[in-house]
């Protein structure tokens, strides 16, 4: 293969040009290298503090699954537990990373350690941006651990800052229902107070009815009917709440939702048969008029409401205790695997890398400048190019004068 002589000459010309300007290149590179050394020495030293957290592991079963089977006739009412846990998806490690990066946690850390003065920030938003530039929170894809890295100029202060940051996150998580058990506990706590008030009202109404009618007892058959109706009504209520919760994340064709609807229809059918009327879905119990007087019927209605609210209150109380046991079993929201300790070595600046990088960059800049300058000199030596340059200067000056 025949080589192009012109290209060989061009390479040789460049080599001659660089050797001829070796003093300039050497001085420029040395000057930049010295400047890089000075700058790297003036840069503040930073240290990294590391904290490793273990987020809670999702539990597929809870104490509730082991105890609901012991509730007896109330066992089917345990579907309320599924409602509280089913209203949201299980929390991945990424969600905890978002909590750790929340404005509430960051601002609390800034105020606790006086970082506004440290970062010379006039506004909390400026201090937050400065803090975020020194903060790194990532979730491991393989092990699921959360790793927090905070950079500071003092190794001891950096460790205190990282550990304090985790403490502020724990304060936030303590006020939130994050895990499934915590959400169930919050759900039943919210439902228990209205149920308690309704039960008190039913007891008061029952007392007034006894005083007004003088009826103190009912026969065993009527009592059995009323208690059975109360249990069925509570089951219907629980199933309706479960279906309402499932619709927030499932379509109408979802197999579990379809099955829940079928179970609800079966419970309503049983309640209608017990009530003795297809037009009433459990709001009343129709008893034979030959066996119950008007006063007795009023007493039965009040007794029915009382048993219903007693059943609901009993269910919510048991479910709340089960949720509390699950929360206690889960322990803390996150556990500290490795607490931050003062770093024994700096993380930045990397002075060797800075000096070497700047030196190499300076060499290429000097070579580029020598080649470009030589090319421009050769270009302007040509008479035609000199005339064009003079024309450019002339028109430029003329344009400036006209302005």
- How many strands, which pairing sense, and closed or not: the largest β-sheet? 4 strands, antiparallel
Total tally of structural domains:
3
| Distance linking N and C termini | 60 Å
Spatial order of the strands forming the largest sheet: 2-3-1-4
Beta-strand residue fraction: 5-15%
User: What is the overall pLDDT average?
Assistant: 74
As a percent range, the share of helical residues equals 55-70%
Q: Kindly provide the radius of gyration, computed on alpha-carbon positions and rounded to a whole number of angstroms.
A: 40 Å
Structural summary, described in words:
With 403 residues, this protein is mostly helical. The chain folds into 3 domains: 5-43 and 349-383, no CATH class; 47-178, Bacterial polysaccharide co-polymerase-like (2-Layer Sandwich); 180-327, no CATH class. The protein contains 15 helices and 4 strands. The chain has helices at 5-20, 22-42, 63-67, 79-86, 93-100, 103-113, 115-118, 124-133, 155-174, 180-213, 220-246, 255-275, 294-330, 351-381, 383-402; strands spanning 47-54, 135-139, 146-152, 335-338. The protein has a 4-stranded antiparallel sheet with strand order 2-3-1-4. A hairpin with a 6-residue loop joins strand 2 (135-139) and strand 3 (146-152). Helix 4 packs across helix 10 and helix 11 runs antiparallel to helix 12 (255-275). The longest helix has 37 residues, at 294-330.
